[in-house]
Amino acid sequence: MFTVKKIDFKQINDFIKLPYKIYKGNPYWIPQLDSENKKLLSEKNPYWKHAKKQLFLAYDDKNNIVGRIAGIIDYNYIEFQETEIGYFGFFECIDNVEVAKLLFDSVKQWLAENKLNKMMGPMNPSTNDEVGFLYEGFDSDPKILMPYTHKYYLNLAEQCGLKKIKELYAYNIPVALDDRMPRLNKALRIVQKRNPNITIKTFDKNNFKKTLEDIIEVYNSAWEKNWGFVPWTREEFESIADDIVNLADPNIVMLACDRDKTIGMLIAIPDYNYVFKKMYGKLFPFGIFKFLYYKRKVKDLRLMIMGVKKEYRHKGIEAYMSLEALINSVKGGYQECELSWILEDNVMTQRTAEMMGGSIYKKYAVYGN
């Protein structure tokens, strides 16, 4: 006998701690910092100024927690995408269809009470955060800010009547100046000849405020027609900007400029999941020392943002930024880079990844009713 109950923020620790039980013994699951998860779900997160949530926990007949889920409504998404849909997110569950169905049905009922009859997910909590169930690639660690979920979640979702509505890809790209270089340099010369006013520069921390304005403008222009896209508010972006500055390697944050105007960007960050795996969710009392020690040993990257303003598409500028980032990544001693996530129908970015020698090594799936 299982039950599902609504919870509030007073029980947030129970909600956050459940995955440690669900993934116990799994060598690939990596917990993010408990403090960061709490901040993400806190009302202090500016995302919740245009969204709302309801958290649920599932219990067995001995009052053990066996599942969790969140119902989420992002009013900015509904307005921007002009679609009446809510999210489910933060789904974790034992391998039991009855429990999963109770969790999904709880979100459906809550959304219906808010006049929404369709849902999709998982969104944790938005399309600008961790998205999807892992669909392929269960035998390796996830990169930073990418989800890792059990394979049986796919079966649970489908047995509960949900269908896969979108695939997302992660490409693995070797970081090396190898036999790709003659071909890449030839392509670069063509791009430069056709666009003589386009230059690529790296991130300047001393000019952070101006760069922040440029990044927001490019981001909200470059992705506006993408599936699932919702613009960042300024407050949202400012809330994560300090993290980006602190985590990013400025030599691998590329800004494409047309004379003095920023028209594209590429943001890659070191894969600090390598460090978080050692910390196991805790910053204190000893996690901070592990972070400072292991951060120097990070050898992989995640390329998490790459795009240009719509009027500059199809000019090879993404490839231009990618090549410059590759060269600087080699100088920085990095070995591999994940480009993620890429929509299944984003052919242009897929071709850029393939040109850089990348291949799909993980897939994610978004489910809906």
Plain-language structure description:
The chain is α+β, with helices and mostly antiparallel strands. The protein has 2 domains: about 5-170, 3-Layer(aba) Sandwich (Aminopeptidase); about 170-369, Gcn5-related N-acetyltransferase (GNAT) (Aminopeptidase, 3-Layer(aba) Sandwich), CATH 3.40.630.30. Helices cover about 35% and strands about 30% of the residues. It contains 12 helices and 15 strands. It has helices at about 10-20, 35-40, 75-80, 95-115, 150-160, 180-195, 210-220, 235-245, 275-280, 285-295, 315-330, 345-355, and strands at about 5, 50-60, 65-75, 85-95, 120, 125, 130, 135, 165-175, 200, 255-260, 260-270, 300-310, 335-345, 360-369. α1 (about 10-20) crosses α2 (about 35-40) and α6 (about 180-195) packs across α11. The two termini are about 25 Å apart. The mean pLDDT is about 90.
Write the CATH architecture name of the largest domain: 3-Layer(aba) Sandwich
How many domains? The number is 2
CATH class categorisation of the largest domain = Alpha Beta
CATH topology of the largest domain: Aminopeptidase
Q: How would you classify the helix and strand content by structural class? A: alpha+beta
Anisotropy-based shape: globular
Runs with pLDDT <50, length 5+?
none
Number of strands: 15
Name the CATH homologous superfamily of the largest domain: Gcn5-related N-acetyltransferase (GNAT)
What Rg, in angstroms, do the CA atoms define?
21 Å
> What's the N-to-C terminus distance?
26 Å
* Major sheet: 13 strands, mixed
Mean pLDDT: 92
Q: Please give the count of helices.
A: 12
Q: What is the element string, with H for helices and E for strands?
A: EHHEEHEHEEEEHEHEHHEEHHEHEHE
Helix content: 25-40%
